[in-house]
Every structure is written in structure tokens, then in C-alpha cells.
Design goal:
The chain is of the alpha+beta class. The protein contains six helices and eight strands, in the order ααααββαββαββββ. Helix 3 crosses helix 4. The longest helix is centred in the N-terminal third of the chain and has 26 residues.
């Protein structure tokens, strides 16, 4: 278990600490202690409040990063660890995030199906124990059915092909209708082509949208 060297002071039962009501009414709360004026209980109260918060923050960092937090006076490391703990605590490693640039920020990886080192990225390996990232290039993400019955037979991280769509082309005299019953044909509606055959003198009898409006982002995940 990771170690936290920042310990709270005077938290035991019956500790010699000024009661909260007295502390809030004390003039020194605004002016600070004057020479020869502070009792040990008052000093203990001031130390306990500061040490309690410092210990709680350090414990949050230690728990989130799973690493020792040392009382070594290195404020730069402490600040960096605190920043990383906030990120880790708010967004677990492995959550896909839309990123508006081709290159992810430091510490992040593209969701491009690549293999990653589980030893180098142990937190990411908790989400993807196989050591392989999902390939989300050009893909939509769909909520897992999880027993609801809308999208049955799916397992997490499984892919799903496009659904076949029905439609038809109609001749100008409306005497001939050519059925269109597959995805490739739908994609060539504008050329009036079915199965590689070009048709002229036909118009769309039914029109379907096979792609929702979208904006292209680069899906990335936090590695550590």
C-alpha cells in the first residue's frame, strides 16, 4: 500500500484543542497570535486544521496515483502529483475522449487498435487487459444494451456492421421499379447504379439517409 507521510496532528479523542465555537470567536483568528498570548490548545487547533487538510490532500494523491507521497519539501513534485491526481480522479484511464487534433497530448494514446505495454500503462490495462486499444477510427460509439433488449446479443467492445436498407428506383413512366436492398446499392443512389449496373431514366422512388450528421474528432484515452 502506498505511503502518505503527511499526518494529521492532534486528532485523538480528548486532544488538547480549542473547541470550534471558541475558535471562531477568538480575536486571534483575524490578527494571529500575539507574543505570549496563545495557549497550547489554541496552537494545537491551528496546527490540526492545517495538518488535517494537508494529510487529506496527500492521501487523495496517494490513493489516486497508488504511490508514496513524501514529506521531503519538494513542492514542484507535489504540485505535479496533485494535478495528475485530479485528472486521474475525474477521468479513469481508458475512457475514450474526443480530441480535436491529430496528435494527442502527453500521456494520452489514440484509440487506433494499437498494442500497448501493460507494464508501462497498468491503469490502462485495467480497462483493456488484453493490452490492445479499441479501434474507434471512423466509428460511432453505441451504449451497451446490458439486458435492456434493444440491441441484444452484444458484448462490450464488440463491433457491429451496418444494417441493410430497403429502397427502389422508379422509371420516368412509372412502369418499372428496380428494388435496392443492400447497403452498397444505397450508397450509389446518386449515380442510379445497382449491383454495378448503371441505370438511366430512373429517379429515386424512396430516399434513405444511411449516415447521421457528424463531426470528426480523434478518440484518445489517458494512458497513465
Amino acid at each position: 500500500m502506498a505511503k502518505n507521510e503527511f499526518k494529521p496532528f492532534a486528532i485523538g479523542a480528548g486532544a488538547n484543542v480549542t473547541p470550534q465555537a471558541d475558535w471562531e470567536e477568538m480575536p486571534a483568528l483575524f490578527t494571529g497570535f500575539q507574543s505570549g498570548k496563545a495557549s497550547s490548545a489554541q496552537v494545537n487547533k491551528a496546527i490540526r486544521q492545517a495538518s488535517f487538510v494537508a494529510s487529506a490532500v496527500a492521501q487523495f494523491i496517494s490513493d489516486t496515483l497508488s504511490q508514496d507521497i513524501l514529506d521531503n519539501g519538494n513542492s514542484s513534485d507535489f504540485i505535479n502529483e496533485f494535478k495528475q491526481a485530479i485528472i486521474n480522479g475525474s477521468l479513469p484511464a481508458g475512457v475514450p475522449v474526443p480530441w480535436p487534433a491529430a496528435i494527442p497530448p502527453q500521456g494520452w494514446l489514440k484509440c487506433n487498435g494499437a498494442i500497448f505495454s501493460t507494464a508501462m500503462y497498468p491503469l490502462l490495462a485495467k480497462a483493456y487487459p488484453t493490452g490492445k486499444l479499441p479501434d474507434l477510427r471512423g466509428e460511432f460509439i453505441r451504449g451497451w444494451d446490458d439486458g435492456r433488449g434493444i440491441d441484444t446479443g452484444r458484448v462490450l467492445l464488440s463491433s457491429q456492421a451496418a444494417t441493410s436498407i430497403q429502397g427502389s428506383l422508379e422509371s420516368q413512366d412509372q412502369t418499372t421499379i428496380i428494388p435496392i436492398n443492400n447497403y452498397d446499392a444505397i450508397m450509389t443512389y446518386n449515380q442510379h447504379a445497382v449491383g454495378g449496373v448503371q441505370y438511366s431514366g430512373y429517379t429515386l422512388r424512396e430516399e434513405f439517409s444511411v449516415r447521421s450528421r457528424n463531426v470528426a474528432f480523434n478518440y484518445i484515452v489517458r494512458g497513465s
